[in-house]
Amino acid sequence: MMTRLSSFLAAVTRFVTRHVALTLVLSALAAAAYGFGVSKVEFSTAYRIFFPEGDPGLTALTRLEDVFTKTDNVLVVIHRPGGVFDRRALAAVQRATEAGWQLPHASRVDSLTNFQHFESTEDDIVQGPLVARPARELSDDELAAIQQAALGDPVLSGSLVSRKSTRLHSILITLRCLPSFA
Question: pTM for the whole thing?
Answer without folding.
Answer: 0.58
